[in-house]
Design goal:
Oligomer: single chain
Radius of gyration: 25 Å
Number of helices: 14
Strand content: 35-45%
Largest sheet: 10 strands, antiparallel
Structural class: alpha+beta
Shape: globular
Helix content: 10-25%
Length: 637
Amino acid sequence: MLHKLVLIVAFMGSLVSCKKPLDNFHIASPNEEVSIDIKLVENKINYRVNQKGKERIGFSELEIFDNGNVTILGAKEIESDSTWQPVWGQHSSIRDHFKALQLEVDFDGVGGKLLARAYDQGVAFRIILNEGDKPTAADFKCTYNLPEGSNYFFPKGETEPVGPVKFAGLREVVTQEDGKVKKFSVPLVVESSDQSYIALLESDLYAARGIDPMRLNIGEASGNIAAVNSVSLNEEEWTSPWRVILLGNSAGDLVVNTVPVNLATPTQLDNTDWIKPGKTLWDWRVHGYTAPDGFVYGINTESYFRFIDFAAEKGIRYFLIDDSWYKHVSKGHFELSDQLDLQEVIDYAAKKEVELILYYDRKHGEYGDEGLFPYYQSLGMKGIKYGFMGSDVDFTRAAIQKSAESHLLIDFHDGPVPFTGIRRTYPNAITREYCHAQQDSRRAFTPESFIKMALINAITGPLDMNNGNFDLTGINSGKRQKGPRKTNSYVSTVVSEAARTLVIFSGLVCIPDAPEAYSAKADLFEFIQKLPVGKWDESRILHSDLSKYITTARRHGEEWFIGSVYNQEGGALDIQLDFLEEGKQYEVTFYEDTPETHGKTNPEAYQVRTGKVKKGDVIEAVMAPGGGHCMWIRPSK
């Protein structure tokens, strides 16, 4: 059957190639609901995207040389349908089914290809320039003519994402005090007036050289957005990142869309057995916490023993040691802190079968990356949290590769390159802080910020957001060394905190509170403890509203974990259990806000109860202002 398919594809390609003139092409997705039209207009490539007969992207430009003339020399139509299994992720099996046009193109005297893929859930474009003589610089440009009347949303570093804002208000949002108009980050989420959704981003930056991460400009015409990147070229073949347009019927559809990861380069690792997703405890936000027995947490050996003991007791795979385990760094040498005995901590963790992840940044000096990763491996570390590396594509790519050579997971912090899809190529790239993490810069974020990031930033892949605080009253009262700068500015409930650890997809779920805070609410902590992080067979977004709420459901085997978060208005969502197996009885544990719970005034009130459910049942998830709701569903014994 496969052999027959190849013959058909080749025949179709030869037919397309015979069409004259070569200036107008059409390709539809496998279900024929999404289509791409490509045509030459004054020797420039223009494209359009339709969905279900409706224009989603009006004719827009795609070019590699500024104002260069394009000639299409040949064309081939391809259909590909395959399935692959990620090392870890939101799905245990991913279908990669698309139809594509491969156009042989003369780009202003330089030979190459334009690849256009149509998936049922979106489209993507890539330019390849052939090996040989070419200019040393280019501009990779893709414009997007978006629907009139849309609302726009996009990330804004370590602050709340922007939106909703109309096109007319975008320029004001991105204009700085000096009058300069700043580019903005991907993904750009576009909420159309008909309540359909579009996301603009890139994938497989790994395969591109000499180009910075995708950022967006505002065009002059209403609804026109442009991505323009300067490119450094040489005589080698050059491949662009994919320019990706995702399509969804809801905002949540974009978060579980598999197109970006399907576009990524397949794994470059021969052996991935050592890559283990999981949960980690973390010391940084606990400093200054006073335990019920009077012990005060800090950067010291005894504090770390307590974390390790709790991790061992609760089956938490990792413990992450953050900054201040060293004082100064020089080439090939760490000057360790005299506040703790790192080797003693390493030995104790090994004895307790808890694996360690160690922080590093270059603020205190540079060790040298050639030796850094082997050194971490020699210490017995399982991963590295890399901070303050800057948004440097080549550096980030190299760090991922070098960490893999030393069998280390890597977690990038502090404004990293999003590198969408890299988890397929190098699955040791376990997560990154492409968001505003909990209390980052000691700013506490709101439920509205969380919901936006869960539906915007998360489209690019796993996020290290550090959800799951349980001692909300203590944190808000200023009793932590690194708590919020403004007391009582952290709005959440403990049930919302538990739900957030599920809602945000990551290969490393970092829970930031003290062991004693979790032990005091052990019945609620059960939800976090049971999560099979990164081992999901299936993930769905059941409810999503960019300003109000999100409900995420994830399946592992026959068990379902469901988490919901609501904004500061609070509210109720009907959760239909139509995804359960027919004829089966299930046990469910509900982790809920109470009628007295409030994200500002009573954040730690919660209740846990059990029950029975079956396919077709509808659960009313009632949430306090800033609150949440969790369910753990498993077959009855």
